[in-house]
Amino acid sequence: MAIQLVMHGAAGRMGRSILGLALADPGIAIVAGVDRQAGTLRDLGLASDVPMLTALPEKPGAVVIDFSHATAFPAVAAHCARHGMALVSGTTGVAPADQDRALAAVAAKAGALAAPNMAIGVNVVFRIAAQLAKALGDDFDIEIVEAHHNQKVDAPSGTALGIADAILAATGRTRADLVDGRHGHTGPRRKGEIGMHALRMGDVVGDHTAYFVGGGERILLGHVAHGREIFARGALRAARFVAGAGPGRYTMADVLGL
Ligand code: NAD
Predict the structure, then answer these.
(1) How many Å apart are CA 9 and CA 17, to the nearest integer?
(2) Exposed, middle or buried, 148 (CB in 10 Å: 0-12/13-18/19+)?
(3) 162 lines ligand 1 (CB under 6 A)
(4) Which long-range contacts (CB under 8 A, 24 or more apart) does 226-231 make?
(5) Biggest CA-to-CA distance, the chain
(6) 104, HSE (Cβ side, Cα atoms, 13 Å)
(7) Which listed residue (148, 197, 208, 223) is catalytic?
(8) 3-state class of 219 per DSSP?
(9) Ligand 1: does its nearest atom lie under 6 Å from the Cβ of 94?
(10) In angstroms, rounded to a whole number, what is the distance separating the alpha carbons of residues 23 and 39?
């Protein structure tokens, strides 16, 4: 049976991308888009008369995909919890404690998943980075280099931090072991630290490379994003997963069977 999908943040860059892919997927029935202006998906340039609403519909059993804004997230989660709707949220910037509390309420009734990066390849990289760090041990120096377009306002990227966090968790280290760039007389490299380096240039969508360098050899674990569709594909895969998984809190690792 087709999953019933409500897209919250439908008029945004991610919302449009997800709706475009969902319209072409016979396994997905789009119930509605939700954003600040009512109408139909035609207003977004999509070939569909599915309605655009300004408030979430009450549709028990449906999945809400949310790519909107941190300030909107609590009400979206509360609506899902109230009406037994599953939730897949890619919205970033929500305080972790608030996110946990809101997702727990949804998870009591339906599937709930939030991930700061839904790209399938990136989530596999998180897992492999953790495995590499653990297997290689203390004698390998780890450095993470990321590159993004020249309009990006923050550094390091959330994805670079995601790679770092996966390594830290796997090796019993903390964010205090991360070193942002290096400058001036830094002294020799401290064993166990992880250097984080950010390049900003042109229209790069997002490149990440983790270096694992031991005496006489190195491993480079890299990911290159070609476009935003990778996040949309991951979100739809997550939506299919939570729709079939029943109540509970899930991660992208669950979705990907990692
Ligand atoms: P965007 O600004 O293009 O779109 C956001 C949309 O949400 C807009 O159309 C806006 O009108 C709508 N919106 C905001 N508040 C709303 C509210 N209260 N009610 C209804 N609609 C509301 O942004 P984007 O690039 O599509 O990104 C959206 C979010 O997803 C951001 O938090 C971004 O960081 C995040 N993001 C996550 C991933 C991931 O893989 N998890 C990938 C890309 C972007």
Answers:
(1) 11
(2) buried
(3) no
(4) 228/13, 228/14, 228/17, 229/17, 229/21, 230/119, 230/120, 230/121, 230/122, 231/14, 231/17, 231/90, 231/117, 231/118, 231/119
(5) 63
(6) 6
(7) 148
(8) strand
(9) no
(10) 17
Q: State in Å: Cα 145 to ligand 1 middle.
A: 26
pLDDT exceeds cutoff 90 at 153: no
pLDDT of residue 184: 97
Q: How many helices (H) and strands (E) does the chain have?
A: 7, 13
Per-residue pLDDT reduced to its tens digit, 218-237: 999 999 999 989 999 999 99
Each residue's pLDDT tens digit, 99-120? 999 999 999 999 999 998 999 9
Structure tokens at 170: 């796997």
Structure-token pair, residue 4: 């019933």
- Give yes or no for residue 1 having a pLDDT over 90: no
Q: Which of 59, 69, 83, 152 is catalytic?
A: 152
Mean pLDDT of 39-49: 97
